[in-house]
Amino acid sequence: MDVIVKSDPPSSVDWKGVKYLPGSVITDMPEKEAKRLIDKGKVERAEEEETPEPVISEEVIEAARKAIEAGQTTGSGKPKVEAMAEILGRDVSAAERDEAFEKLNA
């Protein structure tokens, strides 16, 4: 089940080692866990046709910053996907890297 982290009251949700900020979409959450968080008022069910674009997590942005500080960048100055993956301990897509890089330079 896809859920959206509620912004009223504003609080983040930690799930599978990732911190999701208010407005973030958590995709494919098991229904039992989603219902538990809905009951606590932390998230709400995302409408199928109205699911916003996923928001990049703070951890991915931080991994991008660390990779850049370590000099692990591409010729265009973006952090290397491989360096970010090593920092996070999971695969990172080029789209995630690009979004994190964009947030760092906003």
Describe this structure in words.
The protein has helices at residues 31-39, 58-69, 81-88, 94-104, and strands spanning 3-5, 13-15, 18-20, 25-26, 43-45. With 106 residues, it is of the alpha+beta class. The protein folds into two domains: 3-50; 58-104, no CATH class. A hairpin with a 2-residue loop joins strand 2 (13-15) and strand 3. The mean pLDDT is 87.
Largest sheet, strands/sense/barrel: 3 strands, antiparallel
Shape: elongated
Structural class: alpha+beta
Helical content stands at 25-40%
The side-by-side strand order for the widest beta sheet comes to 4-1-5
Q: Report, as a whole number of angstroms, the end-to-end distance.
A: 31 Å
Based on CA atoms alone, the radius of gyration comes out at 15 Å
Order of helices and strands: EEEEHEHHH
Which whole number gives the mean pLDDT? 87
Tally the beta strands. 5
Number of domains: 2
List segments where confidence is low: pLDDT < 50 over at least 5 consecutive residues: none
Put simply, the count of helices is: 4
Proportion of beta-strand residues: 5-15%
